[in-house]
């Protein structure tokens, strides 16, 4: 700005080249100011910062060009100092763009991003908390859908790479925060223990204060599943609340105050102290959101400076000085001409388009997937190699390719990868086996692939993995069976392959997630008494009662399976002898609506035509919560509660007659 004061008020006649340079510089300043002014609370922070950085880079180059031209003016009018020039050289160095570009390249190669890279990107774009990251993922998903609608494959491909980047950030934070206690006790938004858990219509549970704030921001999607929500009804989850309270008491843990958390700044864990004082002067423009979701900028970026510079550039429009021609053209450039659009924050910078580093960018620009197909076919050939190292590398690469991008899954299946992966389920190498079953699980998430997988002879190999694989392989094999078990024909094949016995064992010794998935698979498979008896003989009821431990986070799934088994005489005895009845009564009293419904259904089956079971349930104090359930439960829960109370009343009358 000091360099421009004298030339602006002078009568010197500038060259046309200098005038054009000032016009260009003025335009970039105006565009930058428009970008700051166009910020919206739910804009994508990543794409916004990339756009700002791209414009700042252009402004830097334009400024340096102006400095060179100013050197030809009389020395008494202007004398650019080397310090000033060096300062301008620091503007818009595209550090964020470069870092993200490298991250997307590594992502494409299957290289795991380090925490330092994730922290650097999050810090650079102002993603300061898990909630910020989840919002960014939702916004990017919407932008990707918009791009798909207009068949802008380049932008869609670039954005889906960014979506996966935000997922990695969330997973990293969750891993840190949830390492000391059951993950089901944590709110997916706050990543802290819940004190007032509520369930949204998608079935996910959140801390009330955080999900209410989420809805207040106009985000009508489930933060975890990104499923659109038609209403904001919040149902208290008393089961989870009781389990958390019990766990906290047992472990001497004081849960945090959600109201304090929601009003406090919760930075990305490694951001604290991650930059030295020397680093701060090189910091990039960061849009930082406060609680009211208005954009504020840190001290290194002052939007008012853009306005000051613009005023200097456009001072005295009628003067014969350097900017006399700039004003009219710059003002014209600001006005939006008919049919034109003002640049938006989500526009991909040209530098990013040129790199071609985003997933499948080259293939998508041409509307095909040729480069992807070439890569996949090469990996399929490596699967058939006699080298175990080549097979390990190929399965690992295919696992990454199938992980998050539905379009890639379709291409991979079309190339014939499914048959090759099924063969690898019999591999003696546990790593190859685990990677192969995970690939098939990922591919099965795409409905168009389910039929191909089912007809590939996959069920016996999946059961083989359930029996012989490592724990990761067993659990992913179970999840694949769950994914494929919607079709009755597939369920029949699973039963013929002998899936029930290893699924019951996994329900006894798997991780909480593995136990849940095994229980779900058994619910889908054990629809007849013959299969139910197999579950019971394998110790399934004992494992299900163990899963009703509040600290396990598996209660509701266990109740569903118990309700399914309860009509078999052997199951009734096992539930009674294993101490399952008092646990079912607890769920009726404190459980979620779904949990109460299934617990009441299980008790109803146990008590039907059995005075002995009725007396046991009454002694466990079931009558008060059942009465409450007839008033506030779901329709099915009310029916089951009323039926139980009728059984109890009939038993009472029978006892009175006998006496």
From TrEMBL:
Pfam family, one: ARM_PUB
Catalytic activity: S-ubiquitinyl-[E2 ubiquitin-conjugating enzyme]-L-cysteine + [acceptor protein]-L-lysine = [E2 ubiquitin-conjugating enzyme]-L-cysteine + N(6)-ubiquitinyl-[acceptor protein]-L-lysine
GO BP term, example: protein ubiquitination
Domain of life: Eukaryota
Pathway annotation: Protein modification; protein ubiquitination
A cellular component term, taken from the record's GO annotations: cytoplasm
ARM repeat intervals: 416-458, 498-540
Keyword tags: Repeat, Transferase, Ubl conjugation pathway
Stored InterPro entries: ARM-like (IPR011989), ARM-type_fold (IPR016024), ARM_PUB (IPR058678), Armadillo (IPR000225), PUB2-4-like_N (IPR057314), RING-Ubox_PUB (IPR045210), Ubox_domain (IPR003613), Znf_RING/FYVE/PHD (IPR013083)
Biological role: Functions as an E3 ubiquitin ligase.
Name under which the protein is recorded: RING-type E3 ubiquitin transferase
């Amino acid at each position: 700005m000091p360099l421009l004061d004298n030339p602006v008020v002078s009568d010197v006649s500038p060259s046309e080249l200098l005038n054009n340079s000032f016009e260009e510089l003025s335009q970039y300043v105006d565009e930058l100011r428009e970008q700051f002014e166009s910020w919206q609370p739910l804009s994508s922070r990543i794409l916004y910062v990339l756009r700002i950085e791209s414009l700042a880079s252009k402004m830097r180059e334009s400024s340096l060009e102006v400095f060179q031209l100013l050197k030809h003016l009389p020395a008494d009018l202007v004398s650019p100092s080397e310090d000033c020039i060096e300062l301008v050289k620091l503007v818009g160095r595209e550090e964020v763009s470069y870092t993200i570009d490298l991250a997307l390249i590594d992502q494409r190669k299957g290289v795991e991003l380090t925490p330092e890279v994730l922290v650097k990107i999050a810090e650079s774009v102002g993603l300061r908390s898990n909630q910020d990251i989840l919002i960014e993922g939702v916004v990017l998903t919407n932008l990707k859908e918009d791009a798909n609608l207009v068949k802008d494959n380049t932008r869609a491909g670039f954005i889906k790479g960014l979506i996966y980047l935000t997922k990695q950030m969330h997973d990293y934070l969750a891993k840190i925060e949830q390492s000391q206690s059951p993950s089901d006790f944590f709110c997916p938004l706050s990543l802290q223990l819940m004190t007032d858990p509520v369930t949204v219509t998608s079935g996910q549970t959140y801390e009330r204060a955080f999900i209410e704030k989420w809805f207040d921001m106009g985000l009508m999607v489930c933060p975890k599943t990104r499923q659109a929500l038609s209403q904001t009804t919040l149902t208290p989850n008393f089961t989870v609340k009781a389990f958390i309270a019990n766990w906290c008491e047992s472990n001497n843990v004081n849960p945090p105050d959600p109201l304090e958390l929601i009003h406090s700044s919760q930075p990305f864990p490694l951001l604290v102290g991650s930059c030295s004082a020397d680093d701060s002067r090189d910091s990039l423009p960061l849009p930082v959101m406060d609680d009211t979701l208005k954009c504020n900028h840190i001290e290194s970026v002052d939007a008012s400076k853009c306005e000051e510079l613009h005023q200097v550039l456009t001072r005295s429009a009628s003067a014969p000085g350097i900017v006399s021609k700039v004003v009219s053209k710059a003002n014209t450039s600001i006005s939006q001409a008919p049919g034109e659009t003002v640049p938006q924050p989500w526009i991909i910078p040209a530098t990013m388009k040129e790199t071609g580093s985003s997933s499948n960018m080259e293939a998508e620009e041409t509307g095909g997937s040729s480069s992807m197909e070439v890569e996949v076919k090469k990996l399929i050939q490596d699967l058939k190699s006699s080298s175990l190292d080549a097979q390990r590398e190929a399965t690992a690469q295919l696992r990454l390719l199938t992980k998050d991008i539905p379009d890639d899954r379709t291409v991979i299946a079309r190339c014939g990868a499914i048959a090759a992966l099924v063969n690898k389920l019999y591999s003696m190498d546990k790593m190859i086996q685990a990677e192969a079953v995970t690939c098939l699980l990922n591919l099965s998430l795409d409905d168009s692939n389910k039929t191909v997988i089912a007809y590939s002879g996959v069920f016996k190999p999946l059961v083989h993995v359930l029996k012989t694989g490592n724990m990761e392989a067993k659990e992913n094999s179970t999840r694949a069976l769950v994914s494929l078990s919607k079709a009755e024909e597939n369920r029949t094949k699973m039963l013929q392959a002998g899936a029930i016995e290893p699924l019951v064992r996994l329900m006894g010794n798997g991780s909480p997630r593995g136990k849940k998935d095994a229980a779900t698979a058994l619910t889908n498979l054990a629809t007849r008494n013959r299969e139910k008896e197999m579950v019971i003989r394998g110790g399934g009821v004992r494992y299900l009662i163990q899963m009703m431990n509040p600290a396990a986070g598996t209660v509701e799934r266990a109740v569903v399976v118990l309700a399914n088994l309860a009509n078999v005489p052997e199951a009734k005895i096992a539930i009674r002898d294993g101490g399952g009845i008092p646990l079912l009564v607890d769920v009726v009293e404190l459980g979620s609506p779904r949990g109460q419904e299934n617990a009441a259904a299980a008790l109803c089956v146990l008590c039907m035509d059995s005075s002995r079971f009725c007396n046991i349930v009454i002694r466990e104090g079931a009558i008060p919560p059942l009465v409450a359930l007839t008033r506030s439960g779901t329709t099915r829960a009310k029916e089951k509660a009323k039926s139980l109370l009728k059984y109890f009343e009939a038993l009472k009358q029978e006892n009175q007659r006998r006496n």
